[in-house]
Amino acid sequence: MEIRPLTPADLRFLAEIDATIESTQYLHLDKSGEGMTFGLRIEPRPLREKQIIPNPLSDELALMYRQIATGGDDGIALTAEHEGQIVAAALAQDSVAHETMSLLDVRVDYDFRRQGVATAMVYQIIAAARESDARAVSAETRSNNFPANQLMLKSGFDLSGADIRRYSNHDMVKETATLFWYAQLD
Predict the structure, then answer these.
(1) Which of 42, 54, 84, 179 is most solvent-facing, going by the fewest CB within 10 Å?
(2) Domains recognised in the chain with CATH numbers
(3) pTM for this entry
(4) How far apart are CA 138 and CA 129, in angstroms?
(5) Is pLDDT above 80 for 179?
């Protein structure tokens, strides 16, 4: 397996990566208090049945991969290739104003999971952020994407916040929250 920069020729294969999210757990958020004195308690909980969620490449992410692979935007686009097949990709974009790098996407084909590919790609992005003198790498996940949340913890990210209404105005118990992760580099 070779991890290398994504080239424009690789772009057509990104949509073929089966990035389906599969999990038997989720992160439960429990909000307490009101107004300026509220708190969130987050804990892993088992799901009643295995969750399988499709995770196709969005048009927005496809455009970002294209912009970075072709040099139109600053950032890092990586791919993992195994026997001539693209099996994983990762994308991060520079945020010069904040002196950070935002990890936007990590996707590994279903058949190549649990082999350390995502971890290696995240570590390469963190190393590149250090070289560019960024002060941190940030990322967002959803509370129901337990594998992504575990990857963030394993890669040295700290949970730094949550948005309980980004995708819904409904009760948190029925919906998923956005979690904000931060890996400080200094």
Answers:
(1) 84
(2) 2-28+47-136 (3.40.630.30)
(3) 0.89
(4) 11
(5) yes
